[in-house]
Design a protein that fits this description.
By secondary structure, this protein is an all-alpha fold. The chain has 2 domains: 49 residues, Arc Repressor Mutant, subunit A (Orthogonal Bundle); 143 residues, Tetracycline Repressor, domain 2. Helices cover 72% and strands 0% of the residues. The protein is built from 10 helices and no strands. The radius of gyration is 22 Å and the shape is elongated.
Length: 215
């Protein structure tokens, strides 16, 4: 029996991307680059040239996907926020439904801020430079909280509150998230960031546990 010549064996060819897939990859590259430039330098200094260079595309290619710099800014936070939420849900999915899962989510958010240092800038500067994107992101977060709390109340896992109380509670909890993230962002080193994370998570659990879980 004749043996096959190893040199004659063809390597499987990679499937070529369709035009739509190539466009999606390029668009994602520009959004990723936009997040990195804003994280490093802020929205005000994030030029189209810097974003296109980091994405590895010609400057003119930018305009095939976004009308101008502001159009890209208006998509950055929802784009990056989705990645953040996916990471948090992946961490929290194994926790019991209800408030225990919310405690895990809070700590996972702080971990995300530690691991992705520029996220804080992308998030909080958006309120000034991309208010529409900031509003979309906040609506996504608030609606997620509402689902969590209504499910917890239906399962008798937390104190029952009225609709307006739930709404106010969510924004108060978001304030706790925001200022814990600020503490972490401005901490002098990773050791201090982790100390703040641990203290904030413990305080959050203590305050929520003493109020919402005491039915």
């Amino acid at each position: 029996m004749r043996e096959a010549n190893p040199g004659s064996i063809r390597k499987p060819q990679r499937r070529r991307l369709s035009r739509e897939e190539k466009a999606r990859v390029t668009r994602d590259s520009l959004l990723n680059a936009g997040c990195k430039v804003v994280a490093a330098e802020g929205y005000a200094a994030a030029s189209i040239a810097k974003i296109a260079d980091l994405a590895g595309v010609a400057h003119g290619t930018f305009y095939n996907y976004f009308d101008d710099r502001q159009t890209l800014f208006d998509e950055l936070l929802p784009y990056e926020g989705l990645r953040m939420r996916e990471r948090i849900e992946e961490t929290a999915r194994s926790a019991p439904a209800g408030m225990e899962r919310e405690f895990i989510r809070f700590e996972a958010f702080l971990n995300y801020v530690i691991e992705n240092e520029g996220f804080y800038r992308v998030l909080y500067e958006a309120e000034i430079f991309a208010p529409g994107a900031h509003r979309v992101h906040m609506d996504n977060i608030v609606n997620g909280y509402k689902r969590t709390f209504h499910r917890a109340m239906d399962e008798n896992r937390m104190r029952r509150l009225g609709p307006q109380q739930v709404e106010c509670l969510i924004y108060q909890l978001l304030g706790m998230r925001a200022y814990a993230a600020m503490q972490i962002h401005f901490a002098k080193d990773f050791a201090e960031k982790h100390v703040i994370r641990n203290a904030a998570a413990e305080t959050y659990r203590f305050l929520i546990g003493r109020s919402l879980l005491d039915k």
